[in-house]
Design brief:
Length: about 450
Amino acid sequence: MKRNWPMTSGMKVACMLLFPLPLLAADPRVEYAMGVRAEERGDDAAAQTAFEAAWKLDPQALPLVRKLAEYRLAADDRAGAVKLYRDLAEGAPERTDVQLAYASILEQTGHGDAMAQKLAVEILEKALEKSPEDLTLISRLLTIFRTRGDTEKATALMELLPPSDPVAAEIYASTARGLFRGGDIVARDRVDRRYLSALQAHPEDPHLARAASDYFRTTGRQDEAIRILSDHVKAAPWSLDLRTRLGVLFFSAKRDAEGEAALKEVVEIRPKSELALQSLAKFHRLKGNEKEARHYGAELLKARGGSPKEFAILADEFIAAGDARAARLLLEKGVFDHPARPELAMKLAVATRLDPETKAKAGRLFREAEAAMGDMKPDAAFLMESADCLLEEGQSKAAEERLRTAIKSFPPEKKKETASALRRLAGLWDRENRNADAAKALKQRADALDPP
């Protein structure tokens, strides 16, 4: 008696492995993937075979034609490479991408051959007849005409560009720069009208607004450049990069109040806007507004980071101005970014000690900085503030040594700082009722350096 055995899923998989199924049709994507894998292994012969197989399955695929053409060219088979593109182009006259690729291979392999150049232009012009508003085709033809100095054809083709299209306006301006002299007022006027027409239709377009503003600025019309960006940010208030650019242009035009206001708006919306912070810091530094310059400089370093030297210099400015808290916050970022730089760790310990909010936590930071400094000698500020920490911990002998070392390390011009260290050491001796004569001498020396 004949039995019908049920086939489990495992049996189905076994059958597929034992008996290759011819009903799994060849797939060009699979062949292409095999070619890519072969290239990764460095097996160019196997890769080319796989790509050939994929192309035979899908001869209309431009990526496969490109791949095979590369192999033809590598084998010095220029004619074979061109034929691949020609056959594809003849079979797909409606495909702009194919016509562009065919023209490009002719230019690439022609090496200045006039016939190849002529044929490339004919191909593109025929394609343009089918797609008269295709900006890629127009741009490619304009590049060819401009390169060979055919001003008449280029000018006629430029007029086919749609007047209010943002991309068309940029193509028009770019071509005009290559064709006409900078002093050609008529040509400049045509570019002006193209940009202004496109801006009227698309004031919100950031690429167009930036290109048009730069164009008017570089042609000596800064007020118009500013007006364009002003109109743009009104139409597109979210365009913060160009709002920042507007602020910078205001500064360039000596319209400082407007520039500062524009950049402050950017920072309010996007606090880590690096260019806005940098511009504000530079502006206030030039104006002598040191407090504002320090503020924006610190925000900039927190946003983008900086070198250890940048952190150290600005932190010293904060400490000199009596703003230990700002110095501490800045140095916390500096130490986080540069954990292997003990000079920043030392400055952080000092700033933490000077900041009333964190004074009690400074002892640990001093110890960590000392452990990290290795052969590096601590500076006088570190020695003096760490001495105070040691005194609070009851380590007067160690504190005395720190103060002695600090006094010796101050350069001659640091009279006030030296006097402060002398008075601290004298005060230590007075509190411990020792070295009375030496303490008196230190006070006299301090008064001579920094009269009370």
